[in-house]
Structure formats: C-alpha cells, structure tokens
Predict the 3D structure of the following.
Amino acid sequence: MKTKRLGRSPIVVSDICMGTMTFGAQADEKMSHRILDMSLEAGINFYDTAENYPVPPKEEWAGRTEEIVGRWMKTKRRDELIIATKVCGPSHGWIKGSQRAGMTALDRHNIVRAVEDSLTRMGTDYIDLYQTHWPDHGARYEDALRALDDLVESGKVRIIGCSNETSWGLMKSLSVSEREGLARYETIQNNFSLNSRRFEDELAQVCGQEGVSLIPYSPLAGGVLSGKYNGGATPDGARFSSYIKMGGRQGAMAKRFINEKSLAATERFGAIAAEAGMSLVTLATAWSKQHDFVASTIVGATHTDQLPEIFAAADMVLSDEVMKAINAVSKEIMYPMG
C-alpha cells in the first residue's frame, strides 16, 4: 500500500485509513477487531477514532469505540500503528458532544481532560494525530491551539489536525499558529466524495498553498455510493435507514445524503464503474485517493464482507478516460448533497 506524508509533519501513513465510528454500535467488539486485523494485514497502518464515537452520539456510549480500539492495540506493536482521535467541539452548536455531560468546548479544561481520558481508554501514552472534531468560530483559536501545543511539547500528542473546518477557520488557525509560534494543524478531516465535491472549491487551494493534508471521511457518501439505497431502498441495518426513522438532526442528515440528485449521480457513477470493470465502492475509494491534497482516505466497515472492495482500491489509479467520465457526471449533476 502506498504511503503519504501528513501535512509537513514527519509522519507518513498508508493512503487508506480505517475509520472506527461504527465500532460498539453497528459492529460488536469481535467484528471490530476482525476488521482491524484484516486492515493491518492489508497494509493499513493508520486508524481514526474519536471520543465521541460510536455514532450516533449517546452519553451511555461515550468512549466505547476508543475502548474497543485500545483493547485491539494491546495485541499489536504500538510503534506499527498510527492512531488518530478527536476531542469534541462545542456542544452549544449543531451537534452535542456525548462526553462531559454534553458540556464540551474547545478550551484548555476540556482538551486536557479529553486527551487524558482518550489515552486511558486506549491504553497508550501518546496519540499520533489529535484533532478538533468540529470548530468553534466564535471562540479564540489561541485558546485551543495553546492547549494543543502544550500536549505536543509534553509528548502526549505528536501532531494536531482539525475536522469539519471551513476555509476561513483553517486559515485563521494557521495564522494564529504562525504568529504565536504554536503547533499547526497538519491535517483537515472533512467530508469529500463523488457526491460531495465542495472541498475542491476553496479548501483544496488552502491545503495546497499551506501544506495541509486532507484526510477525507465518508468517501462512499455514508454508504450511498455502495448503491444500497438505489431506487429508494432502505436496507435493514443501514445507518441512514435508521436515521430516517429517528428524525431530527439524524433525519435531516439522511435527507442530505439520500435525495433525488445524489441517487441519480450514484447510478451514473455505478455505470462508469461497471464499464471500467470494478465495483462502485472500489471506484469511489480510488477516486478519493487520486488527489494531490489527499494524504489518506478514511474508509469504514461494519462487516468484513465489505473490505475486499475497499482494499481493491489500494494500488489502483483510475484512467484519464474514467476521470473524464466522472467529471462529466459531476458537471451535469452539480452538488448532489447541496
């Protein structure tokens, strides 16, 4: 499996990263460990989790995923693993953190408590990549960055990154780090897929100019690009099938991912994949990796049966003809997810 550098840091990772947000909810511990084992055997050395996992966030589930990952880590050599996790952003906005009684914030108090708890749950004395899970644009970036810089200086964290950030927020944070001499965000973890290409509009330029790597999540658009929701299907056990029934924020999220435009685009991409002799899952994963601003694409699974199609993208480079066909669909059906 190919490797790439995270930002301008010394850390190099496999260009596929195994995400864990379903571990402890849709996937039990035995299945989660098997997924992790097969990923390591396939050459994946990069694993992403969060204190807020599994999803959807529930206070009674808080930290369960990190505990599952931690018990697996004890069976491996720590130095062979690149572990990323996240601290919850503020709970007064679009999402409420599952930790600290739903009173999370990006201040020193919360960041220090979060990292100590994550280290304990995973049974390790350092985290390779520590990320802010979502931003607080009304707060001083200095507050969070100074706390994160102290963690880097102490050796508890190697490098830092952000997630679900905007162009303004990323540039603001980088300017604060440069001005104050603080650790900088080396990575940004945002939604990016065939059905969600808005990152290319502005953030891709920021990453290219500033040396920040995208580690995209949801390259299969929440599973939509597997084709399982085609024709309006709501398969049992699928995340968005459950979210539609839940309503509220989860229901709104499901409607953003599954709509007339996204399903139409998915069918077109499926035809391109079939013509190229591969599954749509493989096509979508390979496409995500094939961008110079992407360091590692975060995939996910709830069962080992889903892994072969993902792993098939490891050394794949899509042809110019396939890329042109994909771009033609994206031009005709613009911004399927809004």
Summary: The chain has twelve helices and ten strands. The mean pLDDT is 96.
